[in-house]
Amino acid sequence: MAGNEIIDLAGTNLTLEERIIKYVSAGPKDSDLEEIYTDAADRNGLVNRSRISALLSAVFDHASEDQSEVETKSNELDYFAEIQRSFSHDS
Question: What is the model's pTM?
Answer without folding.
Answer: 0.68
